[in-house]
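Lecture notes, unit on protein representations.

Consider one protein chain, 601 amino acids long.
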Amino acid sequence: MKYKIWLLSLVILTGCASSPEMPELGPGQQSAAMAHLRDYINQEMSAAKVQGLSIAIVDDQGVRWAQGFGWADREHSLPANEHTQYRVGSLSKLFTDAAALQLVAQDRINLDAPVRQYLPEFSPKAPDGVAYPITLRMLMTHHSGLPRDILKGFMSDRPGSFEDVPRSLNDLGADDVPQRSFSYSNVGLSVLGSVITHVTKEPFDGWMRSALLEPLHMQDSMFEALPGHHAQMAQGYADGVAATEPGLRDVPAGGLTSSVHDIANFMRMMLSHGEFNGHQVLPASWVQAMFTPQNTQVPLDVNFPVGLGWMLGSLSQQVTYEGVGTVAHHAGKTRLFNTQMYVLPEQQIGVVVMANDQNAQKLVDRIALRALALTLQVRLGIHAVPPPQRHWAAAEAEISTAQNDADQQRWSGLYSTFVGPVVIDQPLGRSPVAHAFGSAFDLRLRTDGYRSLSYSLLGLIPVPLGYLGEIAFERKSIQGLDTLVGQMGSTTMLLGTRVPQEPIPAAWSARTGKYEIINSDPQIAGIRDLKLAQEDGHLFIEFIEATMGTEPQRLLLRPRSNNEAQVLQLLPDAGPLLRVTFTSDGEALAFSGYIAVRRAH
């Protein structure tokens, strides 16, 4: 999983490089701020071996600073600049959402109408067999219950049409009932894009160009399934080696090619209540709605606010400020490109950072946060509030609390989490121990009652865990589920749930083994090395997703019947279905568009 790779990197790399200390500056010291930011970017890029990066900082008056660093294309000696074009990944969703809201403002669609009002054939069934109404608002806020992806055909050198996704979802079904919890969905945005094309009777790329890109003077930008050979297009890199960016089926979710110069115009429009260069691109009321939490009545979201498209609230202590108001952000990741954008609507400040390297996900976030902090200092005199000091509880308190937790079996069990399965043991008289990534992490008690991860190499040498070590963990019961909740920055979110121990049906025990995908396409980056395994009374599915590298994904599998099992993610009763089907070779398994036949036990 993407998050698993990120967290593993975090544990290994934290503290490996020393970056310039954040200076304390005052209003008007823009030159000093930009000089520091240049040094910071160059040092961070060098440490991470990232080839090229571009950044833009805006306020309500316009673009305050935009610059490129390193190479857009090293092999052709093309330096990066503010017009360098990158694949921006999921930032595309904000544009699709904005285009849909334009149609809402024109009374051409209704935000709270079911999708089937516009796409009558759309009727995916939830795991309970009911085809619940899914609204456009649910699609924009990732509360539709739809799968994150349909893996077959997701990335390809010959991408299919996103307009086929609604029909495919009818066959595959939804992962959960709508509005139960936040569950990020790329296919949900393909459904929203299909509604736009159905209502406008125009091709999606053409409509997006006329409705948003041209009014915002975004001349470097276009929606496209295959990355184009544009004059300013960045070459993508994987571990410093030039590589090929695949095409993408789900264009409304991630098919925008753009530059920081152009994204700066989008941010300026958002900061100016929908206006750009005297033209009202989006009504101010709908801009405000994009920045307003839509999920306050969803208990399983805890305190993870989501607007119409935007994620709201900070996940980092680096951007904890008093009186700043809303922190809106969205990241974008493709196979070879990474983007991060932050907008502070009340303070009228925005930052976007793009890089052309597979491993730059955390780099673009760090740089965006540093740029945001510097801009707040020199423009408004606002300084970050120091993060609260974390103190470990005394040994006596740990022993007492651990004994009580063990008696209640508060922590022990197998959890389905956003990094995959995690086992937590509860030894008598000591901290719970979380087993993940092949390592054991102590969940040590803090003086504030939360627990945080602690790790020692060989049990002797403490290893700093960076952001991972900042998470404050808590066990809570929410809607009858034993949940694992984490507090990060100003946000508290669901990280996983405990999976009940249940007998495995004999039919599923008999299916363990190695499987071969029989409907793969050599032009499509798909999954391989699929395996079903049974360990410690639980079933697991493993596979390698080509677009994610060579690290196997390992997920919990919970049988629902002799012929269906759910691939679990955050919840113990939600996730895509693995179904038994039949081919000329006999029994097979169907998963996310793929068909697999067992070749070895």
